[in-house]
Amino acid sequence: MFEPKNNTNKLKSGIVVKSEPWVSKYRPKSVDEVAHQEEVVSALKKALDTGNLPHLLFYGPPGTGKTSAILAIANEIYGPELIKDRVLELNASDERGIDVVRNKIKNFANFAVNKTSGVNGKPGAVFKLIILDEADSMTSDAQAALRRTIESTSKTTRFCLLCNYISRIIDPLASRCAKFRFKPLETEAMIDKLKYISQKEQVNCDDSVYSAIQEVSGGDMRKAITYLQSSFRFYKDKRLTKDHIYDISGTIPPSVIESFMEACKSNSFDKLKTMVQGIISQGYPASQIISQLFDYIAMTKSITDKQKSHITIKIGEIDRNLIDGSEEFLQLFEIASFIMKQLTQMNID
Amino acid sequence: MLWIDKHKPNSLDLMDYHLDLSENLKNMIVGGDFPHLLVYGPTGAGKKTRILAILKEIYGPNALKIKIEHKSFKHPTSSKNIDVTMISSQFHIEINPGEAGTNDRLVIQTIIKEIAQSPPIDTAYFGSFKIVVLNEVDKLSKDAQHALRRTMEKSSSVCRLIMCCESTAKVIDPIKSRCLGIRIPAPTTSEMEKVLTKVAKAEKFDIPPKLMTNLITHANGNLRYALLLLEAHKAKGYPFQTCDLYQLDWEKYISMISGEITTDQTPEKLSSIRAKLYELIGHCIPPELIIKNLALELIKVVDQSVKFEIIYWASFYEHRMQLGSKPIFHLEAFVAKSMSLIKKHSSQMK
């Protein structure tokens, strides 16, 4: 069943190069390469030219290039060697309680360093960099402990906070930083990048695949690249099509949603029950059903505005219940019966 | 040995259904590019079986030589220890982080960091990495899931995660976007029939068609349950005396409660039902299942207009049950509510 061993050794040497996820392989190496964030890029480039940097706060939805941008900056300032001892990267997977802020961060921040020479003739920096990734998952106590540290060590250290939701960063911290908003990638920027990667990796597919990826990823570059790589690996020998992308991303085929609505129109609880059971046993996640159902309802003309508003309020409730950990079957059944009530009551009036 | 273990396929080639999925998985493994996986699907559809088969495909038969160990972690601030059961082979580790309760983040951080520090030496077959199998990721706290985010990226050169859960609703988006999601649907009727016939053939007996349909409707897509039912039925004597399967005790009990609710709606009845509910909980029937089955039983008998209400309140109390700590309150509240609904409806009728 398996290849003889000497053969696998050959394979193995290939693997080491290959198995790197494209997401990290094609991470921008310099600030210029960061896609689609023109304002941020131009501001950062100016800062880099002067060799000085304010404290930074990057915020925006996932996969828009926040981590990539700061890593690229660090790379340009310090080069691959110095980056190891001049940059402290902490993220949600590290212990980041108030103790860490008081000891680790403070100690690191207090060291002074020599001026570095910088890469490619860029002026170097006289400061170190502390990157706090996923800063919105830090407790507000820990954030409060940072306040004075940021100010008192600003001679030697710059902080960069990255987060999805700026509202979770306490005001005193936010006001000490230059804020940059990262926006979701627009269609062309994303498709260009995907095409570039496909070309490098010899992925064979046409334009409809790219637009499908763009559609399911919703402006999240990391998601898009992961989908591209996964579907390329998963359906190795076949030419990629739109359906493969939908499959990989866990999007539910429109026919399922249609049959859901069909059952809702039937006014029969037996049909409803079979349909919900069918969906559950197909393993479709209820949260995904609900979000696609929402799109479907919003776009359907035969449902009146009043019904739509009732149903969407309900969808909101159900979504919350699901996040709280309710049973999927009952919740789906409830939304189905609610829609059925709405739709059939209209017939009675 | 139970039939479910005895006849478990242990490689991707021996799988009985979802053949194209197995094919694609194999391609991926042979290609050597193995992303983190998130395997999801209903119970008894074969998630774990497939994960084990993947492990075997990657590391060869040695991956199935497993040992069980208990590991304890020291809590960083308090003096208590956290104990977790670990199933491991030379190449992979399987943990159920939910066991650690609120300290699951710690377990995840420690284990993955430990593994990332010691890459595997002998890389036989296709894996140049170790695999961590995490069960029931949907039971992980948000904290622990956030802790996984960057760890997954950083340690991806030495270890891969295979996560397994029933539903992806409770898995946070950043994790989903880092994994290749693999949906494993429940087997269809004909696929179930195929597997059951195959097992019966291996055990040298025949399944009468009536029994087959009964088994399949009863199991409702859960293959494990179907096999257990079949084995239990066979144990009662062969050739089969009857084609009727025993309804499970608790199922009978719930339909009894539903009957009581519909016949009589009084406070006395409510307190006698309470005793029954306690009995069910005492026998470790999950309260979610009780409320779900009770609601399904009730809508079989009540009037159409009441059905909407029953479903609404069932989902309402089930949600509260998840938030609260004592399920009995909410179960009883649901019973009382259904009684009042039925009573109101019947008095309106008069």
TrEMBL record, chain A:
The protein's assembly and partners: Heteropentamer of various rfc subunits that forms a complex (RFC) with PCNA in the presence of ATP.
GO cellular component, one term: DNA replication factor C complex
GO BP field: DNA repair; DNA-templated DNA replication
Similarity comment: family membership: Belongs to the activator 1 small subunits family.
CDD domains for this protein: AAA, HLD_clamp_RFC
Signal peptide (residue range): none
Keyword terms: ATP-binding, DNA replication, Nucleotide-binding, Nucleus
Protein known as: Replication factor C subunit
MF-aspect GO terms: ATP binding; ATP hydrolysis activity; DNA binding; DNA clamp loader activity
Organism from which the protein derives: Tieghemostelium lacteum
Residues annotated as domain AAA+ ATPase: 52-186
TrEMBL record, chain B:
A GO cellular component entry from the record: nucleus
Recorded family membership: Belongs to the activator 1 small subunits family.
Keywords: DNA replication, Nucleus
Cellular compartment(s): Nucleus
A molecular function GO annotation: DNA clamp loader activity
The protein's name: Replication factor C subunit
GO biological process: DNA repair; DNA strand elongation involved in DNA replication
Naturally occurring in which organism (per UniProt): Tieghemostelium lacteum
Lineage: superkingdom: Eukaryota
Entries under Pfam families matching the protein: DNA_pol3_delta2, RCF1-5-like_lid, RFC_C
